[in-house]
Amino acid sequence: MPQSPVNSASSFNIPVEKLFEQAEENGVLVLSGRKLSIFPPTVSSFDLSDVTVVDLSANRFVILPQAIAEMVSVERLCCYNNVMRTLPPLGKLLSLVSLNISRNHLTSLPAHTCCLPLKELNISHNRLVALPDELGQLQALMDLDVSGNEIVALPNCIGELANLRDLNVRRNHLQSLPDALTKLSLVRLDISVNRVSRLPLSFVKIQSLRTLTLHDNPMVLPPTNVCLRGRVHIMKFLQAEIEQSNSKDDISVRSSRAAARRETRALNARKGREKDPKAIRSHSSVISLEAEMENVAKQHGLDWSSMQPSPGTSSNFLRSSVQYNTHGVVGSTTSVSAGGIVPKSLAELDATLEDADNDDDDDDLETTPVSSPQPRTSTPNASEAVFFESSADSSPSTIGMATSDDHSHTAENLGSRDESCLHPPSAFVMPLEGQRPMTSC
Question: How far is CA 381 from CA 341, 364, 374, 433, in A?
Answer without folding.
Answer: 19, 46, 19, 11
